[in-house]
Amino acid sequence: MSKKDYYEVLGVKRDAEAADIKKAYRRIAMKNHPDRNPDNDEAEDTFKEANEAFEVLSDKKKRVRYDQLGHAGMEGQTSQGSADFGDIFGDIFGDIFGGGRGGQSHVRQGADLRYNLELTLEEAVKGTSVKIKIPTSVACKTCKGSGAKEGTKAVDCTTCGGIGQVRMQQSFFSVQQTCPRCHGAGKQIKDPCPGCHGRGAVEETKTLSVKVPPGVDTGDRIRLTGEGQAGTHGGPSGDLYVEVAVKPHKIFQRNGRDLHCEIPISFGDASLGGELEVPTLDGRVKLKIPPETQTGKLFRLRNKGVVPVRGGSTGDLLCRVIVETPVHLTKRQKEIMQEFHEIQATQGKKQSPRKSSWFDGVKSFIDELRP
């Protein structure tokens, strides 16, 4: 039985790049791996064919010879799918079996930290500087973060020889896995530092000054580079991310660059008009209420909002007036209100257009329902 063309086996063109060949092989090998397809002879044969094809096409000299002479030029040159595939799988399946070839660095960067910072609306809008305390790990001063006792240093792991990987037999081929002794570091500390017990870091509470820029809002983050957890064995520290949360305000609600508030006004001010003092984050301002103002009317005070932290124009302050019905009326007030009510009733639509319109709509609706 004649062999399939190696390019056809991997499903690539004859001028395919090395990276494309590896990618095609990886896809076929992962799908037909014997450990994933137990008792499947067809998958095992496909797997062996792909191995043989990859063994030739991934080797420059063998590939040139194959392109010139075909399978005849490969007699005695391939393992026929039964050789030790440790090098192939160490490179391609390293992520499945615990890492590829070569050791990992003994030095590692520290983890990032997060701190939740609560601010008042005034602090968030105008900016501020606050002191925060964070529990973290810092580089050990005794060993300067190496983890080794003074005068000593880390040595190569005795299990993996310093490469961070060990070779293990899997079915009929061998693969590489992370070294169980050094966990991929490739190094061991024989004489640990007495100050940090070999960790290279010690626990400590740090006090930091955080400069909050004007205009921040809930969800914004401030990054403090290098203020996270200390790295392992002298590695760089991680970063600290300060996440802002703005507390609810008694008067204002923020919506992006704009501020909102509700202002109660009396029945008299709403009817006759008047002038009110309105609070803003910069002080009090005058707000003129025109006569016959209805509840829910929105007034916009330009440039009395927030300057966004990322730049742009200043927002506005939006004031919604709420007409407050008077309570605890005196006898005289009730008499006046009764007289006013009787006079107003004679005016009808002229003085209460919305009320009259609504009742007209109700009457029309009821009439339509009648048979």
Automatic annotation (TrEMBL):
InterPro entries: DnaJ, DnaJ_C, DnaJ_domain, DnaJ_domain_CS, HSP40/DnaJ_pept-bd, HSP_DnaJ_Cys-rich_dom, HSP_DnaJ_Cys-rich_dom_sf, J_dom_sf. Residues 127-205 form the CR-type domain. Zn(2+) 2 binds at residues 157, 160, 179, 182. Homodimer. Participates actively in the response to hyperosmotic and heat shock by preventing the aggregation of stress-denatured proteins and by disaggregating proteins, also in an autonomous, DnaK-independent fashion. Unfolded proteins bind initially to DnaJ; upon interaction with the DnaJ-bound protein, DnaK hydrolyzes its bound ATP, resulting in the formation of a stable complex. GrpE releases ADP from DnaK; ATP binding to DnaK triggers the release of the substrate protein, thus completing the reaction cycle. Belongs to the DnaJ family. This is Chaperone protein DnaJ. The lineage of its organism: Bacteria, Pseudomonadati, Pseudomonadota, Gammaproteobacteria, SAR86 cluster.
